[in-house]
Input
Amino acid sequence: MSKQERISWQAVQNEVRQRISQRDWKPGDFIPHEADLAQELGCARATVNRALRGLAEAGLLERRRRAGTRVTLNPVRRAEFAIPLIRAEIESKGQRYAHSVCLREMRLPPPDVQARMQVPANVTQLFVQTLYLANGAPYVFESRWINMTAIPAVRDEDFATFSPNEWLVREVAFDGGDFTFSAITASSDEAAMLSCRAGEGLFVLDRTTRHAGQVITSVRLVFHPGYQMHTRI
Amino acid sequence: MSKQERISWQAVQNEVRQRISQRDWKPGDFIPHEADLAQELGCARATVNRALRGLAEAGLLERRRRAGTRVTLNPVRRAEFAIPLIRAEIESKGQRYAHSVCLREMRLPPPDVQARMQVPANVTQLFVQTLYLANGAPYVFESRWINMTAIPAVRDEDFATFSPNEWLVREVAFDGGDFTFSAITASSDEAAMLSCRAGEGLFVLDRTTRHAGQVITSVRLVFHPGYQMHTRI
DNA sequence: AAGATGTATATGTATGAACATAATGACGTG
DNA sequence: CACGTCATTATGTTCATACATATACATCTT
Output
């Protein structure tokens, strides 16, 4: 008697991945029930469940009670990317980090920002513009609105040691956000800030951050020319 | 005796989320062991494990054997975005989809593409340029290299009914890819294709798709001015 | 003091059993 | 035929138990 090999849920996942990849099970097909698979592969149903649940989370399978499990017809590929601190992003490239606050004042937000932040129309909010530098060269220019009602402690902060980005991450918990990626054509102001020519294409990230139902901050990051955001699946 | 309430793993997750959110457990803190939590909350350790595993996957907790579980110090926020078919993306906005193949020929890839695709230097590959239209207006311009060695069947395909994007998704399985997002300044060629002015900032997605260790295709998508990519967490 | 070895411990995984839940499909009623 | 009812069934969850595995920490060796 050879020693009984224990089947791990990862092994089950690989087996299922292979069968899908080799088109044994084609997109749209129902695959065998958990109980059948468990018996075939020689493991408990819970193990099969663990494996299939993971594949469903990854979007490769679709599962419905009573109906069964089928291979996703048009797998919507999902990519995931990390949103690091700007400091961490710069330092991870081995470059020297610095930031300087260009502007910090109370100001009435324009209507689009009011809407995004869900704040009343006649209340001023904190507006901060910051330039982040890598090895002394402009890296990204940040224009940020901060909800003073939600974060009163920010009133006494000058962001000299900690940038707005870093300060908020450290001080304020958040649980959700919207992200919009786009490209803009550099205006002369933006070109001046980033030391590039007006008219260059620049990568832009707009982000709105929430906590407990409130909008904490709304920020636009305009990156230096040639900036790339990378991810893989 | 009141009926015993069963504790679900979601309930455990919510409890833990709250304690983190309310800073009962601060970033960097160790949280109680699974066994202790299970006893405190009145459920099995497996249930706590299920809950904490999920939070660790979400990046909120860090777990290490023997060491224990701690609240992530600088939670790297991860956003996930879907990568739909171009047809689906256009039609989901209620617009009319169309595409037209501008160029289709065998060609020797430039060195950077050779490197990305991991193909020999002296072998020609299929090069296809396609314009995708929404309600008749240019939506995105695609320049694609297809690995003929990996996908010989593509030799007889003219991409009239199915665009390269759609054809490949339908015909070829894939299991990985690299994504690079950036912004470019429109050249006069690109401006002509997308009916915009030269010099406008354009959003660009470069993607390389793999299957079974081989690179299937490498593609650059140049989007129309004003295009936005959205996601939320 | 530096390095090798051993042990305790927290998380990770596997299992069988039981029950929960959703949803399909069959059946019966108006 | 339209519609509500109900049994069936596949996935979803909980539990107790057992064992696996990584690793922090103590202890022993040189």
Summary: The radius of gyration of chain A is 25 Å.
